[in-house]
C-alpha cells in the first residue's frame, strides 16, 4: 500500500485497538477484501471507482 494511504488506516486501526484488538496493515487490508467480497458487483464497482489513483511503479532515479 502506498505511503499516501497510510494515514487512512489510522482511524480503523485506532478504533480496533480501543476495542482491544491490535491489527497489522495486512490484517486490515485482508479484512477489507473480505468485506468487499460481500458487496454486490455494482456496489463493489462504485467503491473501486471512488478510489484515488496511485502512481504505478517506482520513480526514475
How much of the polypeptide forms β-strand, as a percent range?
A: under 5%
Total beta strand runs: 0
How does the helix and strand content classify structurally? mainly alpha
Which spans of ≥5 residues are poorly predicted at pLDDT below 50? none
Shape descriptor reads flat
Separation of the first and last Cα atoms: 21 Å
Kindly provide the radius of gyration, computed on alpha-carbon positions and rounded to a whole number of angstroms.
14 Å
- Major pleated sheet: none
- Please, what is the average pLDDT? 84
Q: What count of helical segments does DSSP give?
A: 3
H/E series: HHH
- Percent of residues in helices comes to 55-70%
Helices and strands, with pairings:
Elements: H1 6-18, H2 25-37, H3 41-49
Structure report:
This protein is mainly α and 61 residues long. The protein has helices spanning 6-18, 25-37, 41-49. The radius of gyration is 14 Å and the shape is flat.
Brief summary of the model shown:
This protein is mainly alpha-helical and 61 residues long. Helix content is 57%, strand content 0%.
Amino acid at each position: 500500500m502506498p505511503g499516501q494511504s497510510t494515514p487512512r488506516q489510522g482511524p480503523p486501526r485506532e478504533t480496533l485497538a480501543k476495542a482491544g484488538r491490535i491489527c497489522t496493515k495486512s490484517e486490515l487490508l485482508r479484512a477489507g477484501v473480505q468485506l468487499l467480497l460481500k458487496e454486490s458487483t455494482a456496489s463493489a464497482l462504485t467503491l473501486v471507482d471512488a478510489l484515488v489513483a496511485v502512481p504505478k511503479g517506482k520513480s526514475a532515479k
